[in-house]
Amino acid sequence: METPAARDYFTIDCRNVNLNNQKMPRTNFKELLDAGVHFGHLKRKWNPAMAPYIFMERNGIHIIDLEKTAVKIEEAASAMKHIAKSGKKVLFVATKKQAKEIVAEKVKAVNMPYVTERWPGGMLTNFPTIRKAVKKMSSIDKMATDGTFTNLSKRERLQVTRQRAKLEKTLGSIIDLTRLPSALFIVDVSKEHIAVREAKRLGIPVFAMVDTNSDPSDIEFPIPANDDASKSISLIIGILCQAIDEGLNERKIEKDKEPQLKDKKIIRKELETKDIPAAIIEAIVEEDEEEEIEEEEDDDVIVEVEEEEDVIKAVDEAEEE
User: Of 12, 32, 64, 174, which has the fewest beta carbons less than 10 angstroms from its beta carbon?
Assistant: First the structure.
């Protein structure tokens, strides 16, 4: 028999739930409950690492603690907002049938890259090769506009068109991803374990919806939630996309006010004062440093080319003499 003090997710008064005393929470207990975020997997399929996020067992099914879910959503949304505000990209990965359309619709609205078809192995660890495939799409499009297609035979045109359609299906949604993303958001880490491993190898922070059958230990920002129900997926992705949109709008306002670039040390100090996780700060600052290194390398290449030209010129003059 349950004591009067015992909580029950199906009878609790939503008005009495306190989410860390926050004035404007991004979601509330009732929304999470109505979306079915609290439903986990069968008890026999559970992962012991998810024990801290499980509230109770009911009819052989684990029930997720929605208060902890709400707190994790707030943390993830805050971190994503700062990533978007710094001008970096978050790659969304959701190849499950019930998540494909939701992710494509909501993520496209905030102009972020996403993968809804099969995860191409090595997409992060072998990123230059993926970029070559994306450039191939651009070259095919150029062929269609400059009249090169007319010089091809009917069979060759058909082959090129099929190749373009195949590339568009798998890589069309990441055509604007010119460099590695600052973070990944994953729906169902068990299904997308290859993406998690690649991100971990490269030190890219991972946000993820983690169900009771998954392991949250490799995830920097786990959100305990039902990753099988479309309503649950839609609610959480909607909240995070809203946070990204807020970050992009703030970035636009700041750009209008301050056109000059800030020093990296100043950026780091500002991020540290806002209580942002260390992993996100490193991801933001390191990418800025990489951009500087790339610019320096380009300058070195130009200098080397100029030196080679001087050498060739000197050799030619000696031969003439």
Answer: 12
